[in-house]
Amino acid sequence: MKLYDFDGMFDEKLNKFISQNAGKIKESEFEDLIPKLYKQFGDTYIKSVGDTPNGFYAKMSDGELVKALNAHLNQGVPVSEYLCSAIEKRDAVELLLPLLDGGESQIGYAVNLIGSDGRAIEKYMQMLVSPDIGEDLKNSLVDFIKEKADLVADEVVSYYEKGTEREYMLEIMSRTRTPSEKIFGILLKEFRSDPDNVAMHAGYLAEYGDERALEYLLNKIDEEGISFIEYKELLLAIEALGGKYDKPRDFTGDPYYEILKPHASSDIFGGLGGK
């Protein structure tokens, strides 16, 4: 299979364009122009290729596109957006799944191209609990799993109970939409028993959407010892669940309050006391 470095070809064209327009176009304008020029290059006929970049990939089958992606990665030839875009337009998930067992580059591209497709969620879960996967990739996996959280709800609870990647499991649980007393109980327990992460757990309760959490959020926000950041996150959670808290509070002396106060609009600090 013939591989083309379309990004390298574009860079050559871009450098000529910049040289020809030196002094005519501001640097800030170039930044806005580059994406437009790149898109335009995708439909530019290249004699050595015998086609445009977009046309070259449009003629390939689903299998050929994925094979081309793998070849680019294995041979160190830059992967262009034209190739990725061509794959995204196809239903190539089943062909991309094997790349999840490949090297770091294969996995990264496969995850981004597959996204939150339900056919990959179970594999994502296996990767999420693997010690061989880095934190950046795990964060990406969680973002996609959350979009289909109900598909793995029972599995997520099981991992949580085993103590496996508990923070990730809580985040995923908060995005499930099928009512579960067990999941609600876990999210509530974590909120009540983890004073160092009040804001995070308040956010999970708000995302889960069970109004029964309001009682606990209101009790917590009324405590005198909470920080300004905790107050703001609790307030957001309360309002997200349809509640209201308008008791005047004074956070003068709170380091976060003092830092943010000069830069914040009055509505952010509405209802707060202090000078």
Protein architecture, described:
- It is a single chain.
- With 275 residues, this protein is an all-alpha fold.
- 60% of the residues lie in helices and 0% in strands.
- It is flat.
- It starts with 5 loop residues before the first helix and ends in a 15-residue tail after the last helix.
- The model is unreliable at 266-270 (pLDDT under 50).
Low-pLDDT stretches are 266-270
Supply the number of helical segments: 16
Distance between the termini: 70 Å
Helix and strand content put the structural class at mainly alpha
Helix content: 55-70%
Tell me the Rg in angstroms.
25 Å
Q: Topology as H/E string? A: HHHHHHHHHHHHHHHH
Total strands: the figure is 0
Largest sheet: none
Mean pLDDT over all positions: 93
The geometry reads as flat
- Indicate the proportion of strand residues: under 5%
List keywords for this structure.
single chain; 16 helices; flat; 275 residues; 60% helix; mainly alpha
Question: Which SSEs are present, and which pair or pack?
Answer:
Elements: H1 6-20, H2 27-41, H3 53-58, H4 62-75, H5 81-88, H6 93-96, H7 104-114, H8 118-128, H9 135-147, H10 153-162, H11 166-173, H12 181-193, H13 198-208, H14 214-221, H15 228-240, H16 255-260
Helix pairs in contact: 4-5, 8-9, 9-11, 10-11, 12-13, 13-15, 14-15
Concise structural overview:
With 275 residues, this protein is mainly α.
